[in-house]
């Protein structure tokens, strides 16, 4: 609605913000494609600056409060984008600061915002008293997220040429190479640091953040650095991320995913690296005309980049504090202990259970009442409710196992059942299934290889399982379970 106009509107107000192109639209056939492509691309940058913050407040943020914050945080991004990318922006026009694809306006602003948000919202309950309970729940999902970001980074960096005509495709091609090299450098350093600092253990979280730190580090000037420089800059970025992560933890600031270290720490280094390594654009586009200190350009560019860093951090810290303070005084920025413990999946989205926000009553996934998590309950009482919920949710598993080992014997002549071993099985909603079987829902059996198969003309499933006793000798068990409705 208004963010794009603030960033890229004409008639700039002293290089601080634009004053046109609000509620963007155009009938200019010649410019229509370019205008909307630029709008869409920049909206993804604005989104990224906000999603960075979600990682630093994960597992204890008020969902509605975060939605409101996300809306206002768009303005936090819009102003620095004007300063650095609009031709009249004061950092661009008067100081010659450089940020090709958003290390400052996107990542540093997002990282600084994440830092303030994490401090204001406070740590997760027992984060520093029982640190052993806090660990990465799913390294596989985290790695999948890394690969999605890795791939998307190529789109951001290469796409920041805004075209392929003239020399832009050449810059995009080089940006692709340096982007990959930067991630490699960050990953190599992260591998080495986790091995030596954690006594031979390769920490998945460190490696992921090291790679991301390498990507952030080269984002600000990826088309005008050499591939070798990309390895060095990315490697230093990986080290900065891990070092910043240690500092954040030492200061007892709870940042579950390392957003401050990855985007804030590596963002600062990226802008400093521009003042050291940047060189002129060799193509006819002339996107870069100033060289860094190591390229014979002196301290001019390094000074401009330092001012850019200060402006991004100062602006983000001020705006974030004001917006989050107002939200905290009205809606609230932190969720209740019950929501923190049970999780937003269930309490906000009815996944795996249900929470009535009016009555504060909690139900399990079978719609059975668990109890009332009223605001006057102590943490110990909420813990009891959570234990009751877990017992209810896992009851079907225990019932399935009990059915398996206490099944009623049946005449073997009734049916020729299927066989499998426990090693090849999984329990799905109380029904023991072979690994190759995926039922269409929780109540029916229509797949090709169920362990529990109903004899023809009967609704009673046959159980025929081979297990091992204490001496690893196979024991065959056969029985009939209850009817499947």
What does this structure look like?
With 485 residues, the protein is an alpha+beta fold. The protein has 3 domains: 3-330, Orthogonal Bundle (Ammonium transporter fold); 337-402, no CATH class; 407-480, no CATH class. It is 53% helix and 8% strand. The chain has 14 helices and 9 strands. The longest helix is centred in the middle third of the chain and has 31 residues, at 300-330. The two termini are 53 Å apart. The model is unreliable at 415-485 (pLDDT under 50).
Keywords:
485 residues; alpha+beta; Ammonium transporter fold; 9 strands; 53% helix; globular
Number of discrete helical segments = 14
Structural shape? globular
Strand content: 5-15%
Q: What is the fourth-level CATH superfamily of the largest domain?
A: Ammonium transporter AmtB like domains
Largest sheet: 4 strands, mixed
Count of domain modules: 3
Number of strands: 9
Mean pLDDT, as a whole number?
A: 84
CATH architectural type of the largest domain: Orthogonal Bundle
Amino- and carboxy-terminal Cα gap: 53 Å
Q: Which residue ranges are poorly predicted, with pLDDT under 50 across at least 5 consecutive positions?
A: 415-485
- In CATH, what is the class of the largest domain? Mainly Alpha
User: Helices and strands: which structural class?
Assistant: alpha+beta
Percent helix range: 40-55%
Instruction: Kindly report the CATH topology of the largest domain.
Output: Ammonium transporter fold
Structural Rg: 28 Å
Oligomer: single chain
Order of helices and strands: HHHHHHHHHHHHHEEEHEEEEEE
């Amino acid at each position: 609605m208004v963010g794009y106009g603030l960033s890229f509107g004409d008639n700039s107000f002293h290089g601080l913000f634009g004053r046109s192109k609000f509620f963007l639209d155009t009938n200019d056939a010649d410019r229509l494609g370019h205008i909307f492509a630029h709008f869409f691309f920049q909206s993804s940058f604005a989104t990224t600056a906000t999603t960075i913050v979600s990682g630093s407040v994960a597992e204890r943020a008020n969902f509605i409060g975060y939605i409101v914050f996300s809306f206002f945080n768009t303005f936090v991004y819009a102003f620095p984008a004007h300063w650095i990318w609009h031709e009249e922006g004061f950092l661009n026009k008067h100081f010659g600061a450089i940020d090709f694809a958003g290390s400052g306006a996107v990542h540093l602003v997002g990282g600084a915002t994440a830092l303030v948000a994490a401090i204001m919202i406070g740590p997760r309950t027992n984060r520093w008293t029982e640190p052993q309970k806090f660990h990465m729940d799913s390294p596989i999902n985290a790695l999948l997220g890394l690969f999605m970001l890795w791939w998307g980074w190529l789109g951001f960096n290469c796409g920041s040429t805004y075209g392929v005509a003239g020399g832009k495709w050449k810059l995009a091609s080089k940006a692709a190479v340096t982007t990959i090299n930067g991630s490699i450098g960050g990953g190599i350093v992260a591998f080495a640091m986790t091995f030596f600092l954690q006594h031979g253990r390769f920490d998945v979280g460190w490696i992921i953040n090291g790679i991301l730190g390498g990507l952030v580090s080269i984002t600000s000037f990826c088309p005008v650095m050499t591939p070798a420089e990309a390895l060095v800059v990315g490697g230093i970025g990986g080290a900065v991320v891990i070092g910043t992560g240690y500092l954040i933890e030492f200061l007892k600031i709870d940042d579950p995913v390392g957003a401050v270290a990855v985007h804030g720490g590596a963002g600062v280094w990226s802008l400093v690296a521009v003042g050291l390594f940047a060189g002129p654009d060799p193509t006819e586009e002339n996107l870069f005309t100033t060289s860094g200190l190591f390229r014979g350009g002196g301290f001019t560019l390094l000074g401009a980049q330092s001012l850019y860093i200060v402006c991004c951090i100062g602006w983000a810290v001020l705006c974030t504090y004001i917006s989050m303070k107002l939200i905290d005084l009205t809606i609230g920025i932190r969720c209740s202990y019950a929501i923190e413990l049970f999780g937003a999946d269930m309490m906000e989205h009815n996944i795996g259970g249900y929470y009535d926000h009016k009555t504060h009553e909690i139900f399990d996934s079978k719609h059975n009442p668990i109890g009332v998590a009223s605001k006057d309950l102590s943490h110990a009482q909420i813990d009891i409710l959570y234990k009751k919920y877990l017992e209810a949710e896992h009851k079907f598993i225990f019932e399935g196992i009990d059915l398996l080992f206490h099944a009623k014997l049946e005449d073997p002549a009734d049916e020729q059942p299927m066989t499998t071993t426990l090693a090849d099985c999984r329990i799905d909603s109380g029904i023991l299934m072979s690994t190759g079987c995926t039922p269409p829902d929780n109540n029916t059996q229509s797949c090709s290889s169920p362990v529990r198969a109903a004899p023809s003309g009967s609704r009673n499933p046959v159980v025929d399982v081979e297990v091992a006793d204490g001496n690893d000798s196979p024991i065959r068990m056969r029985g009939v379970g209850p009817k499947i409705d």
